[in-house]
Amino acid sequence: xxxxxxxxxxxxxxxxxxxxxxxxxxxxxEEWILERVGIVARHTVLPLEYIRTTKNREPRAALEAxxxxxxxxxxxxxxxxxxxxxxxxxxxxxxxAQGPVGLCATAGARALGAGRIIAVESIPERVAMSKRFxxxxxLDPADAVAKIQQMTGNRGVDxxxxxxxxxxxxxNACASVRIGGTVxxxxxxxxxxxxxxxxxxTFIHRKLVTTLCPVGTNRLERLMALIAGGTxxxxxxxxxxxxxxxxxxxxxxFRKREGGVLKIALRP
Length: 268
Hints:
- It is a single chain.
- The chain is of the alpha/beta class.
- It has 11 helices and 11 strands.
- The strands form 3 sheets. A 6-stranded parallel sheet has the order 6-5-4-7-8-9, sandwiched between helices. A 3-stranded mixed sheet has the order 1-11-10.
- Helix 5 crosses helix 6 and helix 8 (144-151) packs parallel to helix 9 (167-176).
């Protein structure tokens, strides 16, 4: 099972180790694994017993056996960003970037009782999807901070979520939060080994939380219940389906953000 994730990160609880692979009796010694795979362990969305029983010989059957679907993995990471921010009923929340994780944060904020949700995005397809997921208003990134301050009477929002992983977006989130508010960062800053933070404004009194989505059966069951009950519908996130052999083209499509792409399912 392979999913393309444009934003955010999620680690299923099931771990395949090299010892586990060696025990499958498929001709894979530890030396063979290290030579060809090069890593000691990897996480999987498949049940370990399923792998033991079937050796994962049928990729199509694996789709049915998967513990988590494409949209649920994004939802787990994004909702945790909202939960860790300590959202309270009626809070004003600004969510910077409306890619897959940002959209899930928008849906999570709505489900958890946000009073007003301000999304920040410029790509037309994502602007439309943001409103569909619960945003009350979507602002252009160019003047989002000024408009947020204007909309809140120069108070700022209670919670600002950074869901892109960029210095400029992080700075805007910090500049938009009120004194005593929370900046919740779920973006992946792969291109930024360091981040800087302005020491003016609400720097004197704010909370900053970063989120690596946790696992755990109880929590994931609660998230799945929201989806199963219809409280949150994430199916619109899955915009494209491609063959595994087309993976490079899938990454290229997502990188260019063409065709309204959000989440890409790679299938056998």
